[in-house]
Amino acid sequence: MTLKLRQVTVAFGFAVGLLFGAYAIRGIEWADVRGQIASASPVAVVIAVALTLGSAYVRALRWRLLFGGRSVRTSRLFLVENAALGLNNVSPVRLLDEPAIMTMLTLRDGIPGPLVVATLVMSRMQDLALTLLFAVVSIALEPTLSARVIPALVTGTAFIVLFVGLLNLGRLARRSSLVRRIPGIHNYREAVETLLARKRMLMTTVLLTGTYWLMLGPMAYILAQGMEVELSLLQATMLIFGAIFFATAVPGLPGALGTFEVAVVELAGIWGVAPALA
């Protein structure tokens, strides 16, 4: 990415984040916000943090299984993935995690790059597939969500198509001389084929994907109850899924400031939660 393009991208991310942030806090009484935060249950906050960390550890366990027999510890992958997410959080356009992961695992841990890419593609596809499935269920159970969820469905489906294409890139290399020129494409194809051949492992990772995502629902519910936000477990799960998907898919300020807040305010508003409380 050239310097000029990078500058334009960063400026665009900041502009989008500021626009959404301003929309999210319009008309809010900050005294109410401070009061709600001050009255939050410390126990609920601690439990919510523990569930978030537990969810991240299950995600790392899922990732380790995708590496097969490679001697890489779950704790190491936990640190690598969260370090990469931290870099993403200070970037207006969140595209730093994969390059950071590649650098850490190939240089520090000696894992072949094609294998790292194959596991990342498989992980992202599982995440998107589960998110889309939950979005469909959400629309069925809460029809009022349809206007807000359908754009996410369209975006998610586009990403699924992209990841399916990436998984089949190695097969395409057999027919296209242009694709065959991609460095490491042969090793990448072998890594993908090895993953797809391990059906039991794939099923286990799908179950772990559902586990770590669904752990975020109780996290959001407990935090909401600790701040006297009247949401059911299903609603809290819909809220956190939607906010995370929107905040990671849309450029914004570092830390997803603005994009995350506008998603929470808009979704919570469906169930009558006041913007200041949201």
Descriptive overview:
The protein has 278 residues and is an all-alpha fold. 77% of the residues lie in helices and 0% in strands. The longest helix has 29 residues, at 113-141. The radius of gyration is 20 Å and the shape is globular. The mean pLDDT is 82.
Query: Helix/strand-derived class?
Result: mainly alpha
- Structure annotation, total helices: 14
Mean pLDDT level:
82
Strand content: under 5%
Radius of gyration: 20 Å
What would the principal axes of the Cα set say about the shape? Answer: globular
Can you summarize the main beta sheet?
Answer: none
Q: List segments where confidence is low: pLDDT < 50 over at least 5 consecutive residues.
A: none
Q: What order do the SSEs take from the amino end to the carboxyl end, as H and E?
A: HHHHHHHHHHHHHH
